[in-house]
Amino acid sequence: MISSNISSRSDVFVPRLMVVDDGFRAEPEEETDDADDIQRQLATVIRHQLSLLGEDTSRPGMLRTPERAASALSFLTRGYDQTAASVIGEGIFEESHDGMVLVRDIEFYSLCEHHLLPFYGKAHVAYIPNGRILGLSKMARVVDVFARRFQVQERLTDQVADAIQSALSPRGVGVIVEAEHMCMMMRGVEKQNSSTVTSAMRGCFLHDARTRDEFLRMAHG
User: Fold this and answer.
1) Which of 48, 97, 114, 220 is catalytic?
2) Helix 136-147 to helix 153-168 angle, to the nearest 10 degrees?
3) 204 given a catalytic annotation
4) Where are the domains of the chain?
5) Which architecture does CATH list for 89-219?
6) Could you write out the DSSP letters of every residue in 31-64?
7) I need a labelling partner for 71 at 20 to 30 A (CA). Which of 3, 100, 169, 209 fits?
8) What are the CA-CA distances from residue 55 to residues 59, 69, 71, 187 (Å)?
9) Would you identify the CATH topology of the domain 17-81?
10) Quick one: pLDDT at residue 32?
11) Any residues with CB less than 8 A from the CB of 211 and at least 6 apart, and which?
12) Are 17-81 and 89-219 in the same CATH fold?
C-alpha cells in the first residue's frame, strides 16, 4: 500500500511504474528505452518553457541547455526510482548493542515541491537497536532516497524516521532535519539568515523524555 503523502512522477514523464512499499520504481523491462524517452520529453518541455520566458534557445549558449537541464532534473529526482529497502539491501546485522546509534550532520539536497527551488541542509538520524543494527552508510543512503524527490521538509523528516523504523523495528527512532530554503531566500520574503528545523520521534524517543534529551544533546553536541 502506498502512503498518500509520497509524491510520484507524472504519468507524462514516467510510463509503466510499479508500486513498492515506500515509493515508485520503474519496471525493469525496456528501462533504457523508457529513460531515453523521458529525457527527450523533459528536454522538449524545458525548451518550450525557456521560449515562453523569452529566451532564444537556438543561440550557442542555450543550444544544449534543455538536454542538460533534463539530465540534471533526472539526477536530482532519482529517489523516485529507489526505495529504502533497495538501498539498505543486506546492510542489517544481528547485534546485541543496546545504546543509542547516531549519525549526525548527513548533508542532503532536495527540491521544494511548491516552487521547484532547492532546499538543503543536514540530517541527524538516531535509533536504539532491538537486536539488529544498520550499516552506518545506509542511514545516509536512506536520507538521500527521500531527499532526491520533490519534497517538503516535514514529510522528508517523517519518511526517514518511518523507513528506519520499518527496516529495523528498533526500540525507537529520532530524526532532526535542519535546512535552508531557497524559496525563502531567492524570492518571496528574501530572508537570508533563516533556517527551518523539523523532528520526528518514534518509539522510546517519543515516549521517554530521557532518551529524547540524550538524542538532542548528542545531535547538537
Assistant:
1) 114
2) 140
3) no
4) 17-81, 89-219
5) 2-Layer Sandwich (3.30)
6) HHHHHHHHHHHHHHHHHHHHHHTT--TTSGGGTT
7) 3
8) 9, 15, 20, 21
9) GTP Cyclohydrolase I; Chain A, domain 1 (1.10.286)
10) 66
11) 100, 128, 172, 174, 204, 205
12) no
Is 183 known to be catalytic?
A: yes
Pairing mode, strands 196-203 and 17-20: unpaired
- Active-site residue among 82, 151, 153, 159? 153
Given the residues 55, 115, 165, 180, the one annotated as active site: 115
- Take residue 125 and report the three cell numbers written for it: 538520524
The verdict on whether 220 is a catalytic residue reads no
Instruction: Supply the pTM of this predicted model.
Output: 0.83
Predicted local distance difference test score (pLDDT) of residue 30: 55
* Average confidence (pLDDT) per 10 residues, the chain, 221 residues: 42 40 47 84 97 97 97 96 97 96 98 97 98 98 98 98 98 98 93 94 98 96 77
| Cα–Cα separations (whole angstroms), residue 2 to 8, 19, 139, 141 | 10, 7, 22, 21
Question: Is 112 known to be catalytic?
Answer: yes
